[in-house]
Amino acid sequence: MVKALWLGLCLLLAGCSTAVEEYQSATPKIDIFRYFSGQTQAWGMVQNYSGKQIRRFHVTINGDVQGDTLTLNEHFVYDDGEKQQRIWRIRRLADGSYEGTAGDIIGVAKGHAAGNAFNWRYEMEVKTDGSSWRLHFDDWIYQQDSEHLLNVTSLKKWGIEVARVTLFFSRGAGPLTNAPQ
Hints:
By secondary structure, this protein is mainly β. About 10% of the residues lie in helices and about 60% in strands. A ten-stranded antiparallel β-barrel has the order 1-2-3-4-5-6-7-8-9-10.
């Protein structure tokens, strides 16, 4: 009985989240099409459920805007030498929301922007330690100034956070020393 109550409480708390509209008055206003047009770099880390850093990475992103579509060609290099590529195709819809697809994304990602925040939600099959997990990504990007974004992503399974990804984006900067190459 106690386990069932605990699980119910965890699921209830995991389901609570901030609405992107709460950032409506925050500045500077985020425009992902403008920000990601051209080359951008990011440095990030993955933390497990207990907060321990388990991976670091560097990403080079080339963005191209054609009408209502932003294509992001992302090249990841992890601290263990693994390399990965993801190509996002993101469409801005008439109602101001966003939809996106990528080869390793399950279905269609849904996004909304307000003020300095962009919230992006999707599912992905994540491989780790010889296993594969279908995880829900709750991705929050915050415009800091014209050159920098911060990104925090919660990865959940059954509504419970199992990992967190944090990224720092910069436009026009060269690689940092000691960054994974």
